[in-house]
Design brief:
76 residues; mainly alpha; 434 Repressor (Amino-terminal Domain); 5 helices; 2 strands; Cro/C1-type_HTH
């Protein structure tokens, strides 16, 4: 996949749990888990905006473009 989701990194930087973010953004924990585990196929701009507002970050802090021909980054 060419777009990597770095939600776990921002959660750690903000010392926020996935459950707390789910409550703040009013999105199900299951849907946030899918996004966090990099299995999501799409995200609505309204959801991205709400996550950015809750984490006080920019979309670029959460999403990274990696060309398909690049080696996969280590997960973690």
């Amino acid at each position: 996949m060419a777009i990597i989701v770095r939600l776990d990194v921002m959660l750690a930087r903000r010392k926020m749990s996935l459950s707390a973010l789910a409550a703040a953004v009013d999105i199900t924990l299951a849907n946030l888990s899918i996004l966090k585990s990099d299995k999501a196929k799409a995200i609505r701009f309204t959801t991205l905006e709400a996550i950015c507002q809750a984490l006080q970050c920019q979309p670029g802090d959460l999403l990274e473009y990696v060309p398909d021909d690049s080696p996969s980054p280590p997960s973690g």
